[in-house]
Amino acid sequence: MPIDQESWESAVLHLYDDGFAFLATGPRKHEDWRADVLAVMERAVPDPRGWAGLDHTANERSSEHPAVPFCRPSFRADPSRPLTPADLGERLHGIDRASAENLLLALTDDGCTLRNLERFSESFDELQGLARTILARYGDAFTCYTNVRSVGHIGTLDFGGKSVGWMPMTFYGEDCGLVVVSDTEVGLFWAFGDI
Q1: What pTM value is reported for the model?
Q2: Which of 63, 76, 121, 158 matches a 20 to 30 Å C-alpha distance to 114?
Q3: Cα–Cα distance between 27 and 43 in angstroms, integer?
Q4: Would you state the pLDDT for residue 152?
Q5: Angle between the 5-16 and 124-136 helix axes, to the nearest 10 degrees?
Q6: Over 90: is that where the pLDDT of 81 sits?
Q7: C-alpha–C-alpha distance, residues 193 and 195, integer Å
Q8: What is the β-pairing status of strands 165-166 and 54-55?
Q9: Domain ranges within the chain, ordered by starting residue
Q10: What's the rounded Cα separation, in Å, for the pair 103 and 76?
Q11: Residue 98: its pLDDT value, please?
């Protein structure tokens, strides 16, 4: 399904503007997509299409620490310890498209669940349509990665359980995210919370 700027930005704002999130897309320039993800985390590259993202963490970063809040979690109090490609490889795992759609919706809820979507006026199917609109930007041949861990088949997230876990990538008590990788772009969708 072809996507345009207005429908994509509308879906992003509708789902995430009331939360505490970081959503940005950057160009895919390297064979190792993790280098491109780090560039987006550091706000070192603009959106290749000029489309709007969200950065509710903008007031926390500085020119000295452009990747904040993304940092090595073992050094949570020290934002000068940026993530490396190896850190991303240790913390992110691949998921299927259906899990990515559900994760985009779960990122709107504290605790990264699908339990509190009733605050939206749309039905679950309509909300999934918004998630599909967001993913459509990246074409048909993209891969998805997340730091969220849940019981399910390999590559599939199970949101039916009581809670999910995650591999920390920030200094927040909760940080759950999705990375979308296409041949030309990388997208980051991250939600933060203190637990």
Answers
A1: 0.92
A2: 76
A3: 12
A4: 63
A5: 130
A6: no
A7: 6
A8: unpaired
A9: 5-193
A10: 25
A11: 94
pLDDT, residue 64, reads 79
pLDDT for 116 equals 85
Predicted local confidence at residue 154, as pLDDT:
67
Total Cβ atoms within 10 A of residue 61:
18
45: exposed, middle or buried (C-beta count within 10 Å: 0-12, 13-18, 19+)? middle
d(CA 187, CA 135): 9
For the purposes of burial, counting CB atoms within 10 Å of the CB of 119, is it exposed (0-12), middle (13-18) or buried (19 or more)? Answer: exposed
Task: Please check whether residue 95 is in contact with residue 144, taking contact to mean a CB–CB distance below 8 angstroms.
Answer: yes
Q: What is the DSSP string of 73-92?
A: GGGTT-TTS---HHHHHHH-
Listed in sequence order, the DSSP H helices in 107-170 are 124-136
Cα first-last separation, the chain: 38
Query: What distance in Å separates the CA atoms of residue 122 and residue 130, rounded to the nearest whole number?
Result: 10
Judge whether residue 21 has pLDDT over 60.
Answer: yes
